[in-house]
Write the structure tokens for this entry.
Amino acid sequence: MPAILVTGASRGLGLEFARQYAAAGWRVWACSRAEAPDLDALAAAWPAVTLARLDVTRHGMIDQLAAALDGEAIDVLLNNAGVMGGSDFDAGGAAEQAFGHSDFAAWERAWRTNVVGPMKMAEAFVEHVARSGQRRIITLSSMVGSNTLNTTGGLYGYRSSKAAVTAVMKSMAIDLLPRGILAAAVHPGWVRTSMGGGKAPLDVAEAVAAVRRVIAGLTAQQAGQLLAWDGTILPY
Ligand SMILES: NC(=O)c1ccc[n+]([C@@H]2O[C@H](COP(=O)([O-])OP(=O)(O)OC[C@H]3O[C@@H](n4cnc5c(N)ncnc54)[C@H](OP(=O)(O)O)[C@@H]3O)[C@@H](O)[C@H]2O)c1
């Protein structure tokens, strides 16, 4: 039975990843930083789902979980947890991050969550991944982190954090390929979650099914790339 560890599984894309991988017969380590009724219900319905408390900005918690899972094989480490760095999209998050309005405390939270969190997770869980059959480390980044695709400006905190984590995943892919580990950044599409808002074109189930296909089909040539939910390689 393959295994996945997913961060930020309380809601949105992370909860749906946990649901779909469990339904596909995977063992799921579903991490949330707080009590999450929907996740509790999922774990009650699927015995292969194990819940873990994890805030990805708290490195001691990450080390403790890695130690608790010592000896386990994790086929896919999925860094899903992320924040906009301020309000979500429909609550005016983009306007809040316009030039002249920077909330630098929120920037720092976004960087600790979106950039440092995935790196710390990878360092803590690399041996669990190396022990597995599939050996993948995936971080949900975003096309808004692509300089080439940036035609609208703004969104400084979130955009820079996603650009940075895409760069982190590129270095990680180079460093870990000799161990047979494939690392990549994936843009899940613009998805109707609290972060993505109601106008997003993709629903959560559709986006997660598509990203699962990308993860399953990941090749050594794609490692280190920013891959979209439909499998296309996005420019950085
Ligand atoms: N939705 C989109 O259109 C879109 C597009 C591109 C990329 N993404 C990326 O996809 C990922 C998931 O996004 P989403 O749309 O599902 O967002 P969401 O609905 O806002 O969910 C975010 C998840 O991250 C968790 N989280 C936040 N900070 C955390 C921390 N410090 N430690 C652990 N968990 C934490 C949240 O937990 P709580 O419930 O405790 O807050 C929640 O489970 C993010 O990395 C996001 O940047 C989303």
Observations:
- The chain has one domain: 3-234.
- The pocket of NAP is lined by residues 7-8, 10-14, 33-34, 55-57, 80-83, 113, 140, 142, 187-188, 190-191, 193-196, 200 (CB under 6 Å).
- The mean pLDDT is 97.
- Residues 8 and 176 are 24 Å apart (CA to CA).
